[in-house]
Batch of 4 targets.
Target 1
Amino acid sequence: MTVEQAIAYIHSNYWNGGTFGLDRTIELLDLLGHPEKGLKFIHIGGTNGKGSTAAMSANILRKAGYTVGLYTSPYIFRFHERMQVNGECISDEELVEIVEKIQPLARSMKSEPSEFELVTCIAFEFFKRHKCDIISLEVGLGGEFDATNTIEPAEVSVMTNIGLDHVELLGDTLEKIAETKSKIIKTGTDAVIYREPASVEAVFENRCKEVGATLTKADFDSLELVSASLEGQIFHWGQYRDLRMPLLGQHQLKNAAVVLTIVEVLRKRGWKITDEHVREGIATVSWPGRFELIGRKPTFIIDGGHNPQCIEALVKNVRDYLDGRRLTILTGVLGDKDYNEMYRDMAPFASEFVTVTPDNPRAMSAGDLKTYLEQFGKPVTACDTVEEGVRLAKSLAGEDGVVLCYGSLYMLGDIVNAARD
């Protein structure tokens, strides 16, 4: 089996709308000998900021000398990014080896696992083989029936910002969404949450009481921004002075406060993490595709924001970092997203739009997106390829302008490759 064949097999198990639950994941893990048992986790649920929180937490623990796994989704450049140990992605050889082990087991099941269930089991096997001390584990969708929720109680169960996304599966209110996400909190874990409206926090408080978990709410009041530019931010939090972070935006400061709270909880549970480990871990974190500066002349920024909370943060970042500058928006979108939420508040900042088609079967065509965007009264050009779109956007922006690419994480890898050519 080649690595291309292994990845093709994984993708062929795309979710087909079958039974929603944990039974298939548990069955496959049982056939594998339960590689997840005995591993320790930071289990990170929520709607927005899960990946950033996972990456910062993993990097701090790595600086502390631990062997640290990181499991996230989706990927930007290569599938392999989804599972890493100490910053190194799974190799072609090991991915093939694990898929060759898992494939016959999965095919022997009455109901084969979905793609995400399969990937999660591959990741658990990978982390076990590398004898990880702890894994920063991002929930895929929801919580209660997410494949990652087959683990034993985590060291820390984390809730990042809750927003309205996947409402057809998770519920149409923040409280309903919080309810299913809260089910990753189990007896024996400590819980850390991003600050939410009182009605949402009450859901997590009730879950913690139900299972006997200790709840710690991140302290946002002590956050103090010292300075911010496109190169990064400097901030204070609690006893920490002048923490440096390359991730941009006020929402990332709040994510950092959640991470610093996770560190406090881990210390109480016996993990050896110094203030210097924290400082180094935050200063050197890499989390691509989140209001990330990838080029100059023109300034070229990519962002994977696609739901209302992400767009709200993106609008604030445009105001904070790009105020008054000529802005060319390069965009593509999946067909099942709420276009009005994605573009309504951004349109006033745009000088023009350039549309492309993301490389995804659910993508909206560049032409259809062009037709939709024309309602905002700005020039719109649809491009046949990503490369053409990047070239045009750069030309329209000029050396002193800004290209802002957002809409779908699935196109960012192609955008980056084209922008850097």
Target 2
Amino acid sequence: MADVVRVNKEGLERFCAAVFEKLGVPRKDAKVAADILVLADLRDKGSHGVARLGRYVEGLKKGIMVPTDKSQVVHETATTALIDGGRSLGQVVGHRAMALAIEKAKAHGTGFVTVRNSNHYGIAGYYALMAVPHGCIGISMTNAAPLVVPTFGRDALFGTNPIAVAVPAEGEPFLFDAATSVVPRGKLEVYERQGKPMPFGWAVDARGKGTTNATEVLENLGKRGGGGILPLGGEGEEFSGHKGYGLAMVVEILSSVLAGGAFGLGTYAAEGSANIAHFFGAIRVDAFRPLADVSRDLRTFLDQVRNSPKAEGHERVYVHGEKGFAFERECLAEGIPLGPKVVESLKKVGGDLGVPWSS
């Protein structure tokens, strides 16, 4: 991979954690936030990785995010809970909420936790994967700032709203982790940083027409001036963009409406508050069948998919999560690849806070 700097995982985690600590985040929580950011880069989801560290720094400095965990359980049953995030770091609140869902699932078979008044929590897959070592299926989703236009609309009304599901299997687990938009905002930012036109079909301009100008779309989104990212499937109904739009609405309902949090245009609407909402679930596999049997059968199913006939010109059929696990193994052996602009931004963040950069 050309024009990249290979960075050691542990060193990158220490650097990010040290940055969070400099801003008043307790060491334990700083490590959680850093681990989640770095895992995004490890799993080839750089749009949600350490390139975003500056945003968290800015959020902490402006008070949009508070450094110490202020989250509280405000309603609870044996299998459910509602948490008010208290404007804490989304990663910290998310980790606590998913851990609670897992605890409830281990005791009662299922556990579901909603969160309101939180912040951006990183990659959804991190939380879903938390459930796997406990013999549980993990579910994670979140709403986000309004970036995505509804089918036949031209104004962004809801977030990229990712869904993640992780299921234990023999060997590596199955992991589905994807936005309900064509791409996350971070993908547009990558093209903006590189000064390149983005693929046509990712987003629309203020008139609701397709565009390849990532900078224009991002600027319009920043001032809520119309246009935005398209839902999964793309523009209109011909390629089922209305289905991605519907999935985004499902995430919005389960995350924010259920929790009594902000939804649609309500996120990031008040000064000094993001008011992001999340939804977490854990389902104990052996509440249905023995874990070993389910894990074996899932492995058989995944192998069946992998070994199915290949389309002309292709050598492999991948199952969800497989590429990410392979990329992670490569990164652990050779280092995490970061673009030069990302490295420079990290050095600047560290320099401003007195945290030395080390690769």
Target 3
Amino acid sequence: MTEPDHEPEHVPDRVLDELMVAFSKEAPPPEKGYDFDDPSIDRILGLSPAGGIDGVADEAFDDEAFEDEAFEDEAFEDEALKDTEPENAAVEVAAIEVAAIKDDELVVPVPIGAAESSRKTIVIEHDEQPDTVYLDDELDVTGQRSTVVIGDLDDGPGTQPAPGTGSASNGGIDPRIRARRIANRRAEGRRRLIWVSIASGVLLLAVAAIAVVASPIFDVTDVQVQGAVYTDADVLQQVVDSLKGEPVLLVDTQAAQRTLEGVPWVERARVTTDFPHTVVIDLRERKPVATFQGGDQQFRVIDQQGRVLDVLKGQPIGYPLITGNNPDTERGQFAGGPYGSAGVLVVSLPPEIRRVTKSIGVDSSTGTLSMVLASPADSNTDPIQVRLGDDKALDDKLARLLQQVRTGLDGVCSIDVSTSEVGVVPGC
């Protein structure tokens, strides 16, 4: 028996009592006091919802007429029931739904409709959701909905529909669903093909770039060197040889610069490439300002910071000589603070003083500076000693010395410019 498609509404106990009294053959209990002539009973029973059945007034239906018109259960024989039953009935009356009461009025009992024909199961064997419009539109020849089995695109043994459950065409798979799934598979294949093409293109470009960069066609064949005067020739030649034959785009310019700047004479090195075959080396060398002889009897050339640029066996010409108890400093090392002050003093000398300067004295123990100036050519006196003191306020001290030089050095034995008061000692 088919269950009702909705839950029956609750019937109040009061209404049930009234119905039992109305349809019972026994007389009502005297305590209830029901009046069957009351028109409200007819309204409750649905006999006269609007003044009578089918619009006829209540007066047309008295008790006797109603009894004459009453139907007995015996009037309904099996043969009569068969005559009134349709030959091709599609439904059976499964149950009579309990009368529902709404707003205290009796609603005429309505038979539950015939049970709907059961719909067969739709088996979905793929995770792609089909368009449900296609499923609802298909009916078989008997008017019922047929089973649709959605299997894999490759109809293998495990995806075959059950016998007699599929549509007549295409092995149980709706043609439109099959076409939709084929289109999805093709779109997915196209997307994979696009990504594979992109990856292949990138890989080919990388391989082509590496082939071009590493090709001998773009090897370094020319190395140009600028600014090299005192730079160690052996080190410079080693760097040049390491650059030749390398692919111009793969030259390690930073390594070449570090090697060249390790040379004491080189203050800065810049190595650049000039596509397709050239490398340019631009050097800025340190400036030598003075020289001194160490305890090993070799001469050191220093810059204005006191760095030893080179070590020579003979005295180099063109540089003022620093006298004193000088150390044996190695190439590329700093001789010490006083030698840096001596280098600054040499750079700061005015041309008039430089012309008469014979040497610069450094006392490494006290850090004081001194100078030896040549006496005038027509004078028979010894060279002139100049006392400078420490390296503070060298410009002021040189200004006082320049004034004395311009005044004249005839008959002068020594000059003290270490203080603001210039001390001059006449001929010794």
Target 4
Amino acid sequence: MNKLNKECIIPISETTDFTIENLPMGIFSYKDKNKKLGMAIGEYVVDLEYLWRKGLLDRIFDKNVFDSNTLNKFIASGKNKWSLTRKKIQSLLTGKHPKFTKTKKEWLLLQQKVILHFPLKVGDYTDFYSSEAHAANVGRLFRKNEDPLLPNWKHMPIAYHGRSSSLMLSGSPIIRPWGQILNKQNEPEFHPTKSLDFELELAMVIGKSTKNGTPININNAKEHLFGFVLLNDWSARDIQRWEYQPLGPFLGKNFATTISPWVVTMEALEPFLCDGPIQNPPVLSYLTQNKGMHLDINLDVTLTTNKQNKLKITGTNSKNIYWSFAQQLAHHTINGCNVNIGDLMASGTISGEKEGEWGSLLEISFNGTKALKIENESRTFIEDGDSISINGIAENKEFRVGFGSLENKVLPAIKME
């Protein structure tokens, strides 16, 4: 165990996602039901609003940004104050403030006794398509006699704008959507999707706004990032298949996108920056980046059936994506598109090269033609009562930084009148 965790004033498990090196941020409520900012440490939540009122953080903030429904006000305070807050809490948790150590029961709350809330006010949500393995797998499924990648794919990060109104938190039920679906005679019918799918993704949280007409230089991209969350871009493949030409996803995607409750900061993830795949052909100058702009995060997905049978159905790593988060952000803004604090930008489905590393059931089941065995059950897509759990861990020889779990259960479609 790392020295900092050994010095912690509360026990820290060696397997916890929420180490002192991590301290992800979120929004919680407790007995008084007021929403406020917290940091996760082990099995506890640090009540930042309490600590500000008691004078631990008032030298950093002259106004109380911690009594809020979202992280946005705190994020708007800027990178220097994010870092100072994190370091102050690290010093508190290692016993360097004896006055507060005596009152730890007042500001250290068990996670199981608090309610976690959606952490951000998200104005805009963009979903990229940045994993080459995923794009190639999809291309092979639907364009069998052609190059699996479309001609533009290796020249720029491809994306579509999603729907921020249907962003939801881990734990939220996913109601099976209705839509137009082609039958065996290639005629449209209206019924609930039979091909409900997950998509394993990471999403960056924008931490610094820009003015319209001002692109973000790729070498400054990190300055605009607050942190990352796990993201599941739920997909109705049969609805999507009929509607996506010529303008791309619509009802097959906009019914639900879920995120993990804790935002892992960019500062906590700095030790896990790494090189990504070699890009060939060479990219244009505005997409040419320094080394070490990918993230080394192990990701996995577990499917729990409605009969409570469990199976880890995929395991991959975020460093597999072709287009880095810096390239995504630079391309997103190269035409002058402005970004705002709290905006979410997702990686797109993250898949590895090999079977067992694929980030969606579309790939795992070969578009529903190969069933996945889970004990005495089988699945090609997600059924009512099934749950999908996504986890992410970055670790080195010294410590680990995790995201917690993103888990949602699927409920039956609503009845149409």
